[in-house]
Amino acid sequence: MSAQERALAPRGTSTGTAAGRAPVPVRYRAGVVGEASRVVHQAVRAEPVFQARCGRALPVELVEVEARGAPCARCVALASLNLPAADRPVVELG
Ligand SMILES: [Zn+2]
Known about the structure:
There is one protein chain. The protein is of the alpha+beta class. The protein has a domain at about 20-80. It is about 15% helix and about 20% strand. A five-stranded antiparallel β-sheet has the order 4-3-2-1-5, with no helix packed on it. A hairpin with a 4-residue loop joins strand 3 (about 50) and strand 4. Zinc ion binds next to helix 2.
């Protein structure tokens, strides 16, 4: 869907993207990544990934919906500013 089509879509209409859905807390399952990377992101489901507010795209099969754990600082910061979620994935620096 183009930006123009998105702009014309009625509010609340499911578009198959992250737009208009309530975020849920998700983190990588144990053993998928190191413990330091298992932070809790605020993300919306946009098959085949959960699209985090910070821009990370987390594959659905590798994550769990879980609020307990250290929060993703970038997700928290963006949520506190009430900014829209990132529309592009970020590059992980390792
Ligand atoms: Zn995040």
